[in-house]
Amino acid sequence: MNVKNAERKGNEATIVVEIDKELMETGVNKAYMKQRKSIQLPGFRKGKAPRKMIEAMYGAHVFYEDGLEEIFPQVYDFAVAGQDFKAIGRPSLTDMQIAEDGSVTLTLTTEVYPEVTLGQYKGLEVEKEEVSVSDEQVQAELDRMAQNVASTENVEDRAAAMDDTANIDFEGFDNGVPFDGGKGEGFDLKLGSGQFIPGFEEQVVGMNVGQEKDIEVSFPADYHEKSLAGKPVVFHVKLNKLSVTNVPAQDDEFAKDVSEFDTLEELKADIRAKALEQAEKQAQSAFEQKAVELAAANTTVDMPKALVERELDTQMERFGYQLQMSGYSLEQYAKMMGGDVNTMRNAFRPAAEQAAKASVTLEAIVKAENLTVTDEEIEAEIASIAADYQMDAAKVKELVPAEEITGSLTTRKARQIIVDSAVAVAPKAEAEAAQE
Length: 436
Fold this sequence. Notes:
Layout lengths: L1 E8 L2 E8 L1 H15 L15 H8 L5 H17 L6 E12 L5 E9 L12 E3 L7 H14 L2 E4 L10 E10 L2 E14 L9 H5 L7 E7 L13 E15 L5 H7 L5 H34 L7 H21 L4 H7 L4 H28 L6 H15 L3 H7 L2 H20 L1 E3 L2 H8 L1
């Protein structure tokens, strides 16, 4: 093979490469061997027609296009090797010329890694939230812990009251006719929770176990089911069972039951400390992300579509995996949101564009700072990956390319340069309030 010409214009490169007849013959023969089983010529059994007979009937170059597919990865790797640009994305074949001797000249176009001009990435002023934990947050956690150990008992000697859980059967009627979605059996309704339309729960209050009652209510004017919006309806309700939740008092005995602490004050202090630690981690993570985004915003680059699409693929794949954990597919979720997968992909695009620009900024910093990694750092990263996925280090080396690990480590170092040099400042709203 021979690269006859390679020219870059912006984020696109054109490469003219000549393929010698021997290599082209290898590809053409592979294509013939794959296709001959489905080819039948007069006088030959299916799959037994000689290649020359097929070419004589359908043209000398009948297998050239498929033959090129067979060797294209090898051709493309050769064409871009040693160039002063980094090819990305899927290449396009824009021209193919077949010479009389069987050699082929291809003209390929491909997107290339962009030229990046770094702006300021050190000493950036980045907003960082001051973290604190309120008494209300501590109390909310105490309430949650109390609910977790609360007990439930049935009530039969009194009427239903707010905060009780009423197990009910119900059916809704619009002018005496049952309507879709208006029927339920054995439904546990926490009275006062607001689960049902206004006025319903209040009318269950006062009912006794075993009692049946017609409840008259009207659907809100903005109810999502348009056929019922604003309509007066009647629900026939039967109270099957009534229960009450006994939440323990929050005292020293409670603290001993739910924790390793002897007093409620010690438990409160622990809740506050852990909440503060978590809040500080979140604030630091947000600070670091903002710092990288600001460095990227200062970078001048004409982003190739291929890099953005690659990042979009990654984000969609990650989101799809998260949905699978909840039992949904991308298609199902998109339909629930009133769109399709393409609509969802477009919604992800701004974030993907930002992430792609941050990525090229970090790679440019790696180059500008001449960042490298040691063998010890690589081995430590492999050991960390192995521990996370519970596999042998040798298996990690087999599955993860060495250049991917090196790239991850150098990018991490570039990110740290931005973060370590960044100056934390109060958010504008806080700063303005402090000046008043």
